[in-house]
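Researcher: Here's the sequence for the chain we discussed earlier.
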Amino acid sequence: MYRFACANGLVIANSVFKSYKIRHIGYKESNVLAALENIASFKPTLQKKISLFESIRLSADEKLAFANAAIPLRFNEHIEVNTDDIVRPRREEDQKDDLYTVFNVIQENLLRGNLKVTNKNSGKSYRSRQIRSILKDIQINQALWNIAEQIAKSQSNHLAIAA
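Model: Thanks. This is the structure I predict for it:
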């Protein structure tokens, strides 16, 4: 579940996994232990979801469609981004076509930045910056997970109809 090569931290949609927050004020070890037990109990469900994502192969057009759906999560309408750059893996290990790997590649490219972007209004080009806001990071990650979920559902329905 944790990709060491990327070390991007897995964030999934709230609809999949319950959020746990532990306040530093009034800290109780029992609260931490209870949260850890709940998180650990969810691990098999999450592993099944990841296995499903890994079993779904995306065509080049489907990867670009995923990237196009992801662009508005990070960039305003007046910013132009090359979708090929968003789906381009940064590591050899990520040269795969499964949904989980494509999800992680898109996630890393959107969050780490260094994408060439152009302001359509001014015509100026520049490199995007890394996302440093925890809130923005979580918003993008959750929305990307939701897109991946929609793709998986669509692919599963497509396979059911074909059978």
